[in-house]
């Protein structure tokens, strides 16, 4: 039939199907469910996939790095200490006798020869290695993440703040922990208060000579 009123045109048919489907979805699911269904249709699999949760993991790389650095630093310190002790006994034997380093002048040479540069204190080395691995490595990892979170932009102001925070916050914490760790291994925790009183401040100030330039290079 050729009459225009018998069959609806394509536009009219599309409009009616859209109304019927919309009505059915609205009756079956409600407006909020409809919006959710529309959102799922747009997002697809991305909406259904859960967001990955950040799990707590031991910072193995940071711990190993700190352990190696602590062991290396302790090795250098032990070698320098024994070298200086040997040099002092050789250059000033009488002073060494008065200070009780040796018993009598006739055994100065023997005492000097007994101070070996390779007479390593392995227990002390183990203390420092374990301190770096178990304490300083994980602590520094968390510390630097906190600094980067609050001071993310690299500029002169943030660089200065990070360096200062490293010395006045992290520095005293590290000294407190390393003194306690060593005395715990030695079984002499009762000596800690006196150690803090006599050596902590000077150790912190001496550390600034190395750690301030190191921090500038690290954060720069």
Describe what this molecule looks like in 3D.
InterPro entries: Mpv17_PMP22 (IPR007248). Belongs to the peroxisomal membrane protein PXMP2/4 family. There is one protein chain. The chain is an all-alpha fold and 220 residues long. Helix content is 78%, strand content 0%. The chain contains eight helices and no strands. The chain has helices spanning 10-43, 45-48, 60-91, 93-98, 108-114, 122-150, 156-186, 192-219. Helix 3 crosses helix 6 (122-150) and helix 7 (156-186) runs antiparallel to helix 8. The chain is globular and about 65 Å long. The model is unreliable at 1-47 (pLDDT under 50).
In short:
The protein has 220 residues and is an all-alpha fold. The chain is 78% helix and 0% strand.
**Counted beta strands:** 0
Q: How helical, in percent, are the residues? A: over 70%
The rounded distance between the terminal residues' Cα atoms is: 84 Å
Shape type: globular
Low-pLDDT residue intervals, each spanning 5 or more residues: 1-47
pLDDT averaged over residues: 77
Strand content: under 5%
| Sheet/helix structural class | mainly alpha
| Number of helical stretches of at least 4 residues | 8
User: Nearest-angstrom radius of gyration?
Assistant: 36 Å
Largest sheet: none
